[in-house]
Amino acid sequence: MSKPVTRREFLNLIAATGGVATVLGVGGALGLIPASTQASVPNLMPLNGQRRRVVVLGGGISGLTTAYELGKVGYDCTVLESSHRCGGRIMTVRHGDLIDEIGNPQICKFDDEPHLYFNCGAARLPSSHKNTLNYCKELGVELEMFINENKHALVHDPDLNGGKPMRNIDVSTNLKGFMAELMFKGFNNAELDQPFTDDEAAKLLAVIRQFGDLDEDGRYSGSLRNGYASGGFISDPVQKEMIHVRDLLKANTGLLRSVLLENEGETAPMLMQPIGGMDNIIKGFLRKLEGKVEYHAMVMAVHDHGDQIDVTYDQNGQRLTITADYVFNCIPSHLMVGIENNFPEEYRSAMKSIRRGEAFKGAFQMKQRFWENEEIYGGITWTNQPIRQIWYPFHGLLKQKGVMLAAYDYGGGSGFMRMTHDERIEAMLSQGEKIHPQYREMAEHGITIAWHRMNHMLGCSARWGARTPENERNYQILQQPAGRHYMIGDQISRKSAWMESAIQSAHWAMAHMDQRVRAEAGA
Amino acid sequence: MSKPVTRREFLNLIAATGGVATVLGVGGALGLIPASTQASVPNLMPLNGQRRRVVVLGGGISGLTTAYELGKVGYDCTVLESSHRCGGRIMTVRHGDLIDEIGNPQICKFDDEPHLYFNCGAARLPSSHKNTLNYCKELGVELEMFINENKHALVHDPDLNGGKPMRNIDVSTNLKGFMAELMFKGFNNAELDQPFTDDEAAKLLAVIRQFGDLDEDGRYSGSLRNGYASGGFISDPVQKEMIHVRDLLKANTGLLRSVLLENEGETAPMLMQPIGGMDNIIKGFLRKLEGKVEYHAMVMAVHDHGDQIDVTYDQNGQRLTITADYVFNCIPSHLMVGIENNFPEEYRSAMKSIRRGEAFKGAFQMKQRFWENEEIYGGITWTNQPIRQIWYPFHGLLKQKGVMLAAYDYGGGSGFMRMTHDERIEAMLSQGEKIHPQYREMAEHGITIAWHRMNHMLGCSARWGARTPENERNYQILQQPAGRHYMIGDQISRKSAWMESAIQSAHWAMAHMDQRVRAEAGA
């Protein structure tokens, strides 16, 4: 979508295509379209005293979902978690917590207060993710709003406004004004050969004018929508000077996209977060799984014997084996590849094919919530520096301190991954102070997390890559069980990196197993 | 802005104007524009034991601000409030509260729970309203987000989609796609005679494509941005069918405007609300004004004697008079007109000139938060029925019940004003159930408030009308004191109906008085 075209190419395009003509037409079924996500929790057959043993490999949210749901209907479940904590990429760091990055272990030094935490991985819960929400409700996890988009937050690009940050709303209001002028003219073309009625044409023009705050002649000359240069309450509001589109176009295209688009797709619904940290969802599951989770349990081997399946693991120097009916496995595929198993070759090969993302996040505790003095309450500031984003915490509103996301590099391959902790901190400070002059002075107790170096994970979410026939085949193979072994997690979904995907993957696999159990039981 | 034009008029317009040409240009001063609202609290001279008596007429937020600030520097203040409560149009109703509408008194029957309240008047606190926020901070009023815009909320128009409600995001995504196609074509016109460089043109096209999710050829054919028809996690996402612009144009223009525009102007900054009800701000002030507020104190006369000013009031049948140095008066101007006074004729005449708005709000307690099952969390549903809006409470998320705004008619003159309480309730039910079928069954304990009939107020916010020379003169007259008497409140501001305006008005008047006191003191 973002492929740039030259002016010449553009003219050819216009010549070659009919424009809006094909968009016009009558009808289409317009019923209130159902919510995108339906509750997917399977209707499992209760065992009623029959014994079924299940081993869950990995205490990520898909593994915990499995142990929780199967436990409800009578399965005997054990979760083997290799690290000291459950949750995987659902990880909240607070005062005294260990960040277990290989070669860069850190103890978090944030003040010991409930609002001073950092969600190192999962940080946003779209309200359309029904299954995740349902578990929050069921497990008593209290939620609050997460502010993703805030038009009062900033945009920074060295080429824009001489490198001085601008408010999102100043960029977007002016860009929209210009775009509306284009539409106003473009409509001239379109309506000549389109069967708009006068009434439709008038409506469309009215909407276009309102979209951009154009004057009666269809001109944009600034707006009061992006606030006032001064006044507004006791004295008259003074309109801010119009910003010329040419000046806005100095910014990077991706940055303009971030400004102009509101929340879309996964972030279009309301976003939420558990009050006090994302890992409250994990804690909610663990309250229901007491005695069922083994920590520091490193899986060494998985052997499917046809009528049963063995899992061998190492715990505190002891080698232990559990014989089970089924295994559900959310160990990252690229780590599972290195664990002894007797899976079919095509299954092993499919596991090997999945690449992992490299994501980096950094955060500072800020001595003062200086952004609130600049009328920024929550939301994201965009920059085209390597830190990419700054997230202002909304929670803790008007308190003294807050923990701010200071870098979020989800593209992989950036310099952050290869830096020492101190170099990362310095990069975050020097880039942050280009946006907020007081940044360096305010920042304390910085933490950094490179997910592809995190112990027991060594990677962020699965990246399946382009929908090639080969990738597609591998996906199909891994979604199906290998004997009594099910791969689960967001890694086995069409939309990795979301909790909802991990949960739905677990539901899918349990439903599949349930059919087998029903068949065995002659049900 | 919303004046419709016919196709013929439109063609003339296009012919008559040069389009985007004038928008293009180099430069303009683009510094990070300051926040629109500055803290306006005046630097008052402390009295240091000198005695100064002030009477504040009316316990609205401007009156309380005055008593609070003057009290801090040693003034002896008394607030005379005619009703049983302070706050004026800052009014939160909970279990057992009286709604003091003349001819329609109601006792609120909501369940007695903290999240089951209704803000009958002021309901949104823009984060740019610095003075209001500062008082929240100073008075220990805890705030939370208010969700104004929610693209998952609904749009309803009998002419749109056969009267079946649609999600806001389905309308806006499809409308934007069409608009982007128009721009894509319109750019052709524009760039021919504009000095865009190839690079600028490419950027602009890229931004336009991304704005509307157009394909490589600049065509819009639906999007995944408004969610999926199905799938998305375990199975592939299925794109929703494109909705044709002609079908969207069936809706009322004003409704389309509400859909397409995000929060703008006063609601563009983050919006907040005090946790537990807007009147917590009033309670915050009252904690600082103990013993200084007289309730049921009806002002009968104000007489300025040049060197002092007398206020006579009736309290529980007693006629009392206070002699003061200054009076600050936030009694609604149209009521003050009927109270005996010796103000100059032009001042009285200016008071008479201000019209008042008629606003109507209604609310139901809902037995279940059925909207959350439809993935609506907070925000506004727009309809072109007389109820105009439905507001879904975000607070109380995932609890059983919630109080929903069921009608908000701010236009005045609607039928609601002239209906009995029962007729209003029935209108709210029958219109609400066109949007949510289960509405009638879920609704209980409805309340209705017609502000122009509320006791001691008889009107909503001041409506100054067009900026005619006469109105302008009246504004100037009323902003200045009449002798020792200051009119205050949002009624004496350029933007009535906001708490910020009322507060700034009080600040302005106190600063004016402070200059006089300093002069008297020879300071």
UniProtKB/TrEMBL annotation, chains A, B:
Q: Per the similarity annotation, which family is this? A: Belongs to the flavin monoamine oxidase family.
Statement: the UniProt record of this protein carries the keyword Oxidoreductase:
yes
Q: Which InterPro entries match?
A: Amino_oxidase, FAD/NAD-bd_sf, Flavin_amine_oxidase, Flavin_MAO, TAT_signal
Pfam families per the UniProt record, alphabetical: Amino_oxidase (PF01593)
Per UniProt, FAD binds at S62, G121, A122, A123, R124, V299
Please identify the protein, giving its name as recorded.
Amine oxidase
Q: Where does substrate bind?
A: R124
Name a GO molecular-function annotation. oxidoreductase activity
- What keywords appear on the UniProt entry? Oxidoreductase
SUPFAM superfamilies attached here? FAD-linked reductases, C-terminal domain, FAD/NAD(P)-binding domain
Q: Where is the Amine oxidase domain?
A: 61-506
Which cofactors are reported in the record for this sequence?
FAD
